[in-house]
Amino acid sequence: MSSLTDEQIAAARSVDLLSYLEAHEPSSVRKTAPREYCLREHDSLKISNGKWFWFSRGIGSNNALDFLVQVRGLEFKEAVGILADGRSAPVYQQAAPLPEKPKPLLCLPMPNQNNHRLTAYLMGRGISKGVITACINQRILYESRRHHNCVFVGRNAEGKVRFACERGTSGDWKKDLDGSDKRFSFSIPARIAGNTTLNVYEAPVDLLSAAALRRSLWSLQHHLSLGGVSARALDQYLSDHPHIRCVNLCLDNDRVGRRATARLTKHLREKGCIVTNTPPASGKDYNAHLQNIRQEQKQASRPHKEAAISM
């Protein structure tokens, strides 16, 4: 093929990857879900709804042309010719499977000598010192040495650290640490063995806020932060605690939170769980609700203070 026409390129780009593979390489594709497939030689390359994405490499497209160039290593002109002529790529041109990128190791930040800034920050958001101290004592919360961030730690059923996220004690900076496994997000197991109730939140600060609202009763039940609205951490926690039967969804009172609540309710009921929905009574999330209550408590105490001063 001496030169390519716009029509040939357009025709090549119109071929989706699944159609190409089913026609020319049916043995190289495997079905993983009702409308999802993966490539046998690279199982992190997913194909769904006319699109493909190679998660371990961070590349993807909506056509077979980019696949032949980016994954199989063909020259652009040759790939267009193959698709335009309706033939399969020659076997000798297929790129050898590339090794998967190694997952980064999770390295926790060095702890500070004390947790003063962390405590002041969280108490400033209305969270009680008792809840903060309990988490510090359980080694799931501490202040980092370099930036004085709050570090929330997630452990697996054996107590091994598998997840950590940081939140700044000034501003709104937050991040999951590299190497974190989202299945083991920040959680506080029930103090009493065999408790069957799990309370679920979107973020660690919301979890601590709800615990502060429950006062002395908070440690009697399980608490889990999803680190968003995915079901990954929820499914893992239920797998690790099979005795749990009741799940109380305490997600944000906004559009995303309400949609996630509806989706997770259906998901949990299919698992046989009893599901309740307890969004914050005021504000977007539980921390906003807690701060509203703290403000009301301050305002209610002012007349008593003023009366005591005037006596």
Task: Write up what this structure looks like.
With 311 residues, the protein is of the alpha+beta class. The protein has two domains: 6-93, DNA Primase, Chain A (Alpha-Beta Complex), CATH 3.90.580.10; 116-301, Dna Topoisomerase Vi A Subunit, Chain: A, domain 2 (3-Layer(aba) Sandwich), CATH 3.40.1360.10. Helix content is 36%, strand content 20%. It has ten helices and 14 strands. The protein has helices spanning 6-13, 17-24, 64-70, 76-85, 116-124, 129-137, 204-214, 232-240, 255-270, 286-310; strands at 29-33, 36-39, 42-48, 51-54, 59-61, 141-143, 150-155, 161-167, 174-176, 187-188, 197-201, 222-225, 246-249, 274-277. The strands form three sheets. The chain has a five-stranded antiparallel β-sheet, with helices on one face. A five-stranded mixed β-sheet has the order 10-12-11-13-14. Strand 8 and strand 9 (174-176) form a beta hairpin. The protein is elongated and about 85 Å long. Mean pLDDT is 89; it is low at 91-95.
Keywords:
Dna Topoisomerase Vi A Subunit, Chain: A, domain 2, alpha+beta, DNA Primase, Chain A, 14 strands, 36% helix, five-stranded antiparallel β-sheet, single chain, 311 residues, 2 domains, five-stranded mixed β-sheet
Brief summary:
The protein is 36% helix and 20% strand.
Question: Which secondary structure elements does this structure contain, and how are they paired or packed?
Answer:
Layout: H1 6-13, H2 17-24, E1 29-33, E2 36-39, E3 42-48, E4 51-54, E5 59-61, H3 64-70, H4 76-85, H5 116-124, H6 129-137, E6 141-143, E7 150-155, E8 161-167, E9 174-176, E10 187-188, E11 197-201, H7 204-214, E12 222-225, H8 232-240, E13 246-249, H9 255-270, E14 274-277, H10 286-310
Parallel strand pairs: 11-12, 11-13, 13-14
Antiparallel strand pairs: 1-2, 2-3, 3-4, 4-5, 6-7, 7-8, 8-9, 10-12
Protein name: DUF3991 and toprim domain-containing protein
Pfam families: DUF3991, Toprim_2
Domain DUF3991: 120-187
